[in-house]
Amino acid sequence: MLYGIAAASAALLLTALLAALLRMPGLRAGIVDRRCRRPVPVLGGVAVVAVTCCVTWAGQWTGVAPLGEGVGRLLVAGGAVALLGLIADVWPLRPRVLITGTAVAAASVVPYDETGFLGGMLAVGWIAFSSLAFRGLDHADGLAGTVGVITAFGCGACAAAEVMDGLAVLLSVFAAALTGFLMHNWHPARVGLGACGSLFTGFLLSAGAVFTRAGYSLAPSAGVLFCLGAVGAADVVLVVFSRRVARRPLHRRGPDHLAHRLRRLGITPQGAVVLLGAAGFSAVLVGVLVHTGWTGTAGALWVGGGALLAVLVLLRVPVHTPRRDAPSQVTGSLRVRNG
Question: What is the pTM of this model?
């Protein structure tokens, strides 16, 4: 327990320090994301990944908190996904490259001897989906980090219930690293996660959840996994459906995510993150209770129904407004547009 407290404290402080140090290099190198017309450097994910890996491997190397073979392989695969995301932050990559790379990494860590072939393939799909869903949550200041911290604590509780000490330590260190990152990511954000940090977050959390549910029945496991990733899944469904209806390309960015629509309803940026964080906490709590047997699997159905209702309600919030042409003046044969 003393090592866990020390490791979490070190992860929080080191991530906060490293994220601050990486801000200026990110700005100078142009590795930024534009939010409300202001550039936000996205090297914060590098800080989260580096500190999580270093602190966790320190426990493994000293023998104080050994990870175990499966968890060590999970961390290596997560690092590979983070590297792929860092490349995407620097040079644009096609979505299918990110999907394929994440799926290959997921296929290398799924415990097929416990899940079976069919369950393993479904787990690979869920890990890839969740990783990309967390990348989508990085559309608002503080959102991906807040949901990530809540989910990490939930997955860590599930791991502790299964006496997976190595996985529980990894998730607690990761939650602390994300908390340190949030010191710089709360609105207005000074640094962002980027594809590096968001893909790593989604991969680590979803794969960790799969580890805790390995060996359980497929249907209850699907319910628990959905509860642990409900906010990200709802965001993906909302965006995909709205873009299909509007006949917009799925890969083109737009202000049609969860937080964007809440902002259209008059909620402040901080309020939108708090509201979505509360929704994520409720869903994760249900997932933990279902996993530990404190409540039946019907709780997952309530979470699914609530997520579906939220998607249907937010779909009615207009986000794709038609562009207005500025008034013009015509002088002779020359047409001048104002604005």
Answer: 0.91
